[in-house]
Design a protein that fits this description.
Blueprint (H helix, E strand, L loop, with lengths): L8 E3 L21 H13 L2 H4 L1 E2 L7 H4 L5 H7 L3 H7 L10 H29 L1 E4 L20 H12 L8 E5 L6 H6 L6 E8 L7 H4 L4 E5 L5 H18 L5 E5 L17 H17 L4 E4 L8 H17 L4
Parallel strand pairs: 1-2, 1-3, 3-8, 4-5, 4-7, 5-6, 7-8
Length: 326
């Protein structure tokens, strides 16, 4: 019988949303889905949601980011608009002053990175937490790519160990179910075997990082167009044994990208709305059953329905834990 009785916490700030004079609309990613998901949950739970929520007040510091990223990379982020425009996949940003990009785009991402640290701390205390952002799994030590600038999970792992909440050799699980391979995480922890990685992704799309793929402990590539039956079957066959073999892990990070959704133009998988919810419930229940705390982050999602998929999963988490009645 599980010893954990989760009392989930949600980490969220209205400042997570990226609004930059309309330029954010030049990328398929809905950079305001965090606030939209929050509003939908607020309509469901009312003031109770405030009791279950913690808000990051300060962004992650440069010193904290330096535990994962090189100083040369962090310096380039604040001095080179052209580099940022490529990493964020918004070419017009190359013409925008660096300070403005830092304020309007990078600050929300640093705040969300703080949120992932907080989510990890809450997970250790409460069993489950959700950062209503994060999942920047393409960012590596010296490079940002695919709308991912800071490795929030990487920074959170290092901060837990530096603070003593985890020992240096404590095992950490990363379960990455975003449609894209989490190459940044694999590269950051290439030599660190205390971090074990389960990654199930569309192998026919970006980033096609074969070197990073070698580091994944449970590498489960999918074909373009994979549907619910195949996806859920693979997950139900592969994940439980993987977690069982890592049952001494102190915490798991779950990248719950909604870009597996059938209408997503970038993920190119064929998972229904019900399939996304079933995935999330299965992952969380599998971890709870083995008493492994879980910090969930949002990852990718490039449809107008992405925020609704996020809100549906979080609604289920909170409703199950708190026996909320409408």
């Amino acid at each position: 019988m599980s010893k954990i009785k989760p009392k989930p916490k949600i980490i969220f700030s209205p400042k997570y949303d990226i609004q930059f004079f309309g330029l954010e609309k030049l990328h398929l990613f809905d950079s305001c889905k965090y606030g939209r998901a929050w509003k939908k949950l607020k309509n469901k739970f009312g003031e109770k949601l405030d009791n279950w929520t913690k808000c990051p007040e300060t962004e992650v510091s440069i010193d904290e980011l330096s535990t994962v990223h090189t100083k040369a990379y962090l310096s380039e982020l604040i001095t080179n608009s052209q580099y940022l425009s490529r990493a964020l996949e918004i070419p017009p940003l190359a013409l925008v002053p660096n300070k403005l990009i830092d304020k309007k785009v990078l600050y929300p991402m640093r705040l969300a990175t703080r949120g992932t640290i907080m989510a990890a701390e809450c997970a250790l205390e409460d069993g489950i937490s959700v950062n209503l952002s994060g999942g920047y799994h393409h960012a590596s030590r010296e490079q940002g790519d695919g709308f991912c600038i800071y490795s929030d999970i990487g920074v959170a792992i290092y901060q837990l160990k530096q603070s003593g909440k985890l020992k240096s050799d404590d095992k950490v699980i990363v379960i990455d179910l975003d449609a894209h391979q989490g190459n940044g995480i694999a590269r950051i922890f290439y030599e660190d075997r205390s971090v074990v990685i389960f990654d199930m992704y569309n192998a026919d799309i970006y980033p096609l990082d074969m070197w990073a793929r070698k580091r994944i402990d449970a590498n489960i590539p999918l074909s373009q167009g994979t549907d619910d039956s195949v996806y859920i079957d693979k997950l139900e066959r592969e994940l439980p044994s993987f977690i069982e073999n890592q049952r001494d892990a102190k915490i798991a990070f779950f990248n719950a990208g909604t870009d597996i959704y059938e209408r997503d133009p970038l993920g190119k998988l064929s998972i229904s709305k019900q399939g996304v919810l079933k995935r999330d419930k299965f992952v969380l229940n599998s971890l709870i059953n083995l008493d492994i705390p879980c910090a969930m982050v949002l990852g990718g999602g490039y449809t107008k329905e992405s925020y609704e998929l996020v809100a549906d999963s979080i609604y289920d988490i909170l409703n199950t834990a708190y026996n909320y009645q409408d």
